[in-house]
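Reply to dn_fold:

You asked what the input looked like. This is it:
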Amino acid sequence: MNVRRSAAALAAIGVLAAAAPATAADPSPSPKVTVPSGLYGKGDPTYDGVWRQSLTLLAQRTLGYRPAAAAVDWLTGQQCADGSFAAFRAEPAGPCDDKVKADTNSTAAAVQALAATGGHGGAVDKAVGWLKSVQNKDGGWGYYPGGPSDTNSTSVVIGALTAAGTDPADVRKSGKSPYDALPAWSIPCGKDGGGALAYQPDKKGKLLPNADATAAGVLGALGKGFVAEAGKAPAQDACAEAEHLTPAQVADNAGAYLGTAVAKTGHLQSTLPGAKDQPDFGNTADAVVALAADGRTEPAKKAYAWLEKNAGQWAAQSGPAAYAQLIFAAHAIGEQPGDFNGTSLVSSLNALGPAPHMDSAAHESAAEDEDSGTSVWWIIGVGLVGGIGIGFLLSGRKKRRP
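and this is what came back:
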């Protein structure tokens, strides 16, 4: 998610923590504001409180957990009277005035989380109503109301509409839906970065490939949110030319670009301001979900395998949103987030805030996942004592396959 917005927007919403390399310092060890009870993570929530809380609750529901009431109440308490959400409201009892700047991304993320938790239909409907009211004439959305549309904001709103049971194709402004906006950011196949999506045109109107926008655009074009499962394999692997791209073609072309991007190393590259090229953990996790949703399971698995070997420290330093991203990636390809290279993403995430509980007996496998990182090594130890071959024991290591 580190290239999700422009540099100026990144400074405004503070998502760099979730995209920092493994060598980065612990995010916000001394928060500028007190971290409220019920909120996940210990870092300063000023720029990402609603975002990280929403991804956390959605990840927990995906695993079969019922989020703690305190955690859900914190999120619903952040909603403004008009239905919108800002990145963070230090005084939720106060009015949403000029000092509280609502944005589409926080609102759309909250919709996906509250729709998944259930029982908050009124809050979801008000938020969707607000999103519809700030749709741009090209059919898309910008980060802030009135701002130019971009791929990431449009895609996260599509995910929110879908989660709320609304067909994005039916949400129109000046006759255009978000599916009319996305093709405008798709780079033609014959050009540099063909198939990829740009965040939005640059000042000269040029489209530049953006890996984060491309991953988001795949899910948006497919009408999906943060959580997705493996889809049907595309008809062709390469970028397909068309005068007027359909949403499916936008997704397939973008998926082909991502597949090529991770083919060599298994990960995407990122350059933070003033830094050398380095692996991009957050965008790679998002790419796993996008590739799987587009039916490109082999490159998705390769990227996930790289994450499993390398992304543990990044997640520990970055916090709840990072753990959620990895959980979404595991879910997309049928892996167990309870055993992420010997570490449980489930336990790690749940330990950062109020403890959730299992929703029903039907979700007992999630509890097994939570303990699997520990149980694997316990089993190996027992096997060694008993003289059983390590290879035999490792072959029993739980891994779901699609």
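Residues 364-386 form the longest helix (23 residues).
Hope that clears it up.
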